[in-house]
Write a structure and sequence with these properties.
heterodimer; A: mainly alpha; 74% helix; B: mainly alpha; two-stranded antiparallel ribbon; 11 helices; globular
């Protein structure tokens, strides 16, 4: 088999396994897995910027929150139905990523991290400032009737656990294959080359800024898709999702799973979710777990789980 | 109260903020300047300084000045020792690579915060000021301790500056800052200088916290806002420039005190954050920095 065929069939296998798990898992774990799938879409979006293009952003929570509020506010205040609200979330993410990227990409390295961090912090403060509309930390609980996704011939209600699981899986599938296609395309290869040697790419005649901006916008839109899906599937939009913590978490998930691998973000998110779930049954010190995991990862496993698998056993892993 | 005295009060409050902020930002700036490390855990060293100050002060009975004095000496030492260990155990093994160290200090932030929450608890606790005196101005009374904080901070900044420019340790630090490899070639123990600077930076943050803790209470989340503010100060002052840091701390502290007295603090913080991000975008060397890198 060629490496492309291997890669595509591995990804298909994973989707099939996730599909089958819907019927095998007990209720509690099915709920967790739905959440993990939506959040790993967030991590995948982050991975495109951080893993492939080498843009270490500390502000991706703002893109997730843009999707979350783009969908949540239009549903809650304007009474939009789920599809237009989803589109509003994606649009909000795209515009924000375009503006933030246009400004922040004038800097690089440490300055880029701090600028993205500050943009995200300003966004978070804005969600608190406009508390009349967003209800701040308390958040909005979206009415069930507005969250129905109407398809021709069917009306899917995300409050039903199985439907919610399938919708999350559908989103994951679309984004996973989109990214698989993107990172193997010439655009994806150009991003990796920019990450490895920006000067050389510039000398070869590539527009480095445009490539990075495109990466950040696609990344922002994917994160916004995760946010909007979260609002619609779980019916909640709160300022907590815009806080700094939600900029750090995707970084942690991607580092753990393996930066610049398509499957790494899913592995990392799943692993971390269960690590926190298991430890929180013994102690409520989950921040300690996150902190120690971050330090151990950068010290001993800078490539993450999927990165180590690729380095050791499966060199074709995308 | 008339507008004039009101502004004076806001200015004094701003000056107290600026004094503490300058001390804390000085630590951040030193660490960035010499080691090129963005220490995200700096705010947690500040918090740890305040929490330890409460603990040390509660050990001593008798006059509150005794407990405060013990805290003033012991708390920065303990925090510096923790920072020293963190440098040895984590940062040095990462070779001070900028991106890896940011991730590692984020990890450190979570660990310190969680440990403080577990062992100190979610309550905010006060420390008795060493002396309780009010200066009566014609319009309002003002705590003498707050003025002492301003004076103490000024002295400490001056001491740091003298240490950097007049002593051998400062010379080693400046040599390492300007060129790490050449410094190493001249036999300067760069590793030890780095560990020392990281400990010194953390110690300065802890000192700032001990000074402020009789005014604000010690709380496990108290490091977050000062961290952001000191980032702002260090960036506006020009990364790694000490004079710029002090000037910017005055600017930010005063305007923060005055703006948040007249406008919503959330709005003030939001605008300040955006403004600083834009400064960094359009003038990466800071408002007062000169050397473009």
């Amino acid at each position: 088999m060629t490496s492309t065929a291997k890669a595509v069939s591995l990804h298909l296998c994973i989707i099939v396994v996730l599909f089958a798990l819907n019927f095998l898992l007990p209720e509690y774990h099915r709920g967790i897995l739905s959440r993990v799938m939506v959040l790993s879409v967030f991590a995948m979006g982050y991975n495109l910027a951080f893993g492939y293009a080498g843009l270490l952003s500390l502000g991706h929570a703002m893109f997730f929150a843009a999707g979350l509020y783009g969908a949540g506010l239009t549903i809650y205040h304007l009474g939009w139905s789920a599809w237009p609200a989803l589109a509003a979330g994606l649009g909000a993410g795209a515009i924000l990523a375009l503006v933030a990227g246009f400004l922040a990409l004038r800097t690089r390295g440490v300055a880029f991290m701090i600028v993205t961090l500050m943009f995200a912090q300003a966004f978070y403060l804005a969600t608190l400032y406009f508390t009349t509309y967003t209800r701040g930390e308390e958040g909005l609980v979206l009415p069930q009737s507005a969250r129905n996704l109407s398809f021709p011939g069917a009306n899917l209600d995300p409050t039903v656990p199985a439907t919610r699981y399938m919708l999350a899986l559908a989103l994951l599938t679309v984004i996973l294959f989109l990214l698989l296609f993107l990172v193997r395309s010439s655009f994806g290869r150009a991003l990796v080359a920019v990450r490895e040697n920006e000067e050389r790419m510039r000398m070869l005649g590539y527009d480095v800024f445009a490539n990075k901006l495109a990466a950040l916008v696609v990344s922002g839109v994917i994160c916004a898709a995760a946010g909007a899906a979260y609002a619609i599937l779980f019916g909640y939009a709160g300022a907590g999702f815009a806080s700094i913590q939600y900029s750090i978490l995707p970084l942690l998930w991607v580092l753990l799973g393996g930066a610049a691998t398509t499957l790494g973000p899913i592995v990392g998110t799943l692993f971390m979710f269960y690590a926190v779930d298991v430890t929180s049954s013994y102690t409520n010190a989950y921040m300690l777990v996150v902190g120690i995991a971050l330090i151990l990862l950068v010290l001993y496993f800078p490539k993450g789980i999927a990165g180590a698998v690729r380095a050791r056993w499966l060199p074709w892993l995308p | 109260m008339a507008f004039g005295p009101y502004l004076l009060l806001a200015g004094l409050e701003g000056l107290v903020t600026a004094a503490v902020l300058a001390l804390m930002a000085l630590g951040l700036s030193l660490v960035f300047g010499v080691m090129r490390v963005v220490n995200v855990a700096h705010g947690e060293f500040y918090m740890l300084g305040a929490v330890l100050a409460w603990w040390f002060a509660s050990l001593v009975s008798g006059h509150p000045a005794l407990g405060f004095l013990l805290a003033l000496i012991a708390s920065p030492m303990v925090v510096a020792a923790i920072a020293f260990a963190a440098d040895r155990l984590v940062l040095r093994r990462l070779n001070y690579e900028p991106e890896a160290t940011i991730v590692a200090t984020i990890g450190l932030l979570y660990i310190i915060q969680q440990l403080a929450l577990t062992f100190y608890g979610p309550e905010a606790r006060p420390v008795q000021p060493p002396f309780d005196m009010r200066l009566s101005l014609p319009w309002f009374g003002y705590s003498a301790y707050k003025l002492a904080v301003i004076a103490a901070s000024a002295c400490l900044i001056l001491a740091t500056w003298i240490m950097l420019t007049r002593t051998r340790a400062g010379l080693l630090m400046r040599a390492t800052q300007s060129d790490r490899e050449t410094a190493q070639a001249f036999g300067i123990p760069v590793d030890r200088v780095y560990a020392g600077v990281f400990a010194l930076g953390a110690g300065l943050a802890a000192l700032a916290a001990v000074l402020i803790v009789p005014i604000q209470q010690a709380h496990y989340l108290m490091g977050q806002d000062p961290l952001l503010l000191s980032f702002i100060v260090v960036i506006i002052g020009g990364l790694g420039s000490l004079r710029g840091t002090v000037v910017a701390a005055l600017l930010i502290g005063l305007s923060d005190g005055i703006i948040s007295m007249f406008f919503s603090p959330t709005l003030a913080k939001m605008l300040a954050t955006l403004l600083v991000a834009l400064v960094l975008v359009f003038r990466p060397q800071g408002l007062f920095g000169t050397a473009a890198r």
